[in-house]
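Feature request, filed as a ticket because there's no other form

It would be nice if the structure record came with a short human-readable summary line next to the tokens. Right now we just get the raw output. Example of a typical job, pasted below so the devs can see what we mean:
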Amino acid sequence: MRDKGIEPYPLRFARTHSAQAAIDCFETLAAAGETIRLAGRILTVRKMGKAAFAHIEDASGRIQLYLKLNNLGEEAFTTAIDLYDLGDIIGAEGVLFRTRTGEMTLEVHRVEMLAKALQNPPEKYHGLRDTETRLRRRYLDMAANPEVRQTFSVRSQVVREVRTFFDARDYLEVETPVLQPLYGGAFARPFVTHHNALDQDFYLRIATELYLKRCLIGGFERVYEVGRTFRNEGMDRDHNPEFTMLEAYQAYADYADMMELLEQLYYAVALAVHGTPQIPYRDDVLDFTPPWQRVRLYEAIESVTGIDIYAHPETDALLAQVQACGIGAPERVTWATLVDELLAERVEPTLVQPTLLLDYPVELSPLAKRREDDPRLVERFEAFVGGLEIANAFSELNDPLDQRQRFEEQVRERAAGDEEAQPLDEDFLLALEYGMPPTGGIGIGIDRMAMLFTNSASIRDVILFPPVRTRETE
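Raw output as currently delivered:
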């Protein structure tokens, strides 16, 4: 093309209409014989001697072009026929008309190359189905599969509606550090990096919790953050090492307030995205109409497994019960990890309709307040839908002395081999000593919310560029 004096990557093209806008305004534009300019990627070409039909696609949709030797002139027509290929991005100028079959079409009077594709499109744009290729080259996945673009459009809408929901309730959106000198706020192994200027190791955050609580100590009463979070863990259908989490904290609230907040949030997003609180997900129809089912955690475990966890307060006794259920022991065996294993292996898969599991053992919840009527339990709930955990919430612990004891217990767990135990954060304890009001807090997985509202089976389907193992040839 350059040998012919044609620049295959020109600086600009002044498009007047998207494909869908041209279709929407067809009657007016066609009746006036108005010249318009469209642009998009070539999807199909049908050559017919001195004429050709092609379809181009932009972000709004696709439209047909009619290229004719008499309209373009021999040189431009020959160039288009001989040098334009599927996948090329072109600009076309002309007037709209209907073909004999009734299809809205642009009769092209001028056409130019905007971006020459040097690679062949996948499967002639009939679809890209190989899972590994789709994840490794997501740009091809989006180009070949319009439903994938729709998934990410819906995800964007979900995030927008989440922000709108919290903004309308006078929450302040803030940003906290991604690089932290000490990680905390969750049970997880962190990613470690080195800060050259300070000559010390930093951690990619595993949660935003401890910094958001500092905001409440500083005087804000309602804060939230939507941000990337990182946990150095395995990958499966609902876990990815890099994910998006919303955390929100409200002064003078508790976990009961967070229950209502979560129910109203999902209800509002369902209405905004689907127009109804009943949405399809895999083989079920989920109903997000409040209030959701509420069950105490130990009652849910006993109902499904027959095990009363508090009748077996010693680790060995509970381990025997767990193994009798056919569940393998976790890598690190403690009473708390066994309870967590019962929850994950037996209870979670049964929770299809929106359900709140309430009142967790204190051993599983080092940042939550104890129940006044039962010090073995804390005011915490987790929410489950479609077998997925979608939220975690507490009445937040604001007693610095109790918090220190909980952190010290975590330090002992780490020394005993629990790599996911939380470190003792002296700066956070110092901040608590200045006083944090009674607070309700919640963490909500945005990726899993996107899975539900796009009916996606895997978290990788709603993350634009998920991590994949690098091939040796790459």
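Something like this underneath would help us a lot:
The chain has 15 helices and 19 strands.
The radius of gyration is 28 Å.
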